[in-house]
Design a protein that fits this description.
By secondary structure, this protein is mainly alpha-helical. It has 2 domains: 1-73; 77-140, no CATH class. 76% of the residues lie in helices and 7% in strands. A two-stranded antiparallel sheet has the order 1-2. The longest helix has 28 residues, at 2-29.
Length: 140
Amino acid sequence: MNQRLKTGPVQVRWPVGALLVVGLGLVLLAAPDAVEGPVLLPISPGHALSRLDAIALVPLLAGSFSLYYGLWRHRGRLRVAASQALAPAAALVFVGGFGLGLLIASAFSAFFWWWAIGAVLFGSALLTAVLVAARSSSEP
């Protein structure tokens, strides 16, 4: 019984803490150009990695790694949820992959705003998977 009480808060903290760290990284990435500092790495016209962007990568990658690790640990729960709703799960995987592809391709595209479309699609798919994993972990 005591073991059960110890694992409960950890399971609840997993997605919340990781999402807060990712949010911090996104806030730093969204900072105005005036505070970003010098360009460290030009990527393409309209895209470059500044000093603040490089700093923002630390919480963004740490939070993302924590989310992916948590999803990996809860993959059994995700498998059960996906087997119960196969078509929505397949659509979610497609949307997430398409969004990630748009994010990567946006650095080399003439249409500057593809990154925003890709970020919304990929972020929505990731958040849905995290919520399914977290909700499933609270069920008996």
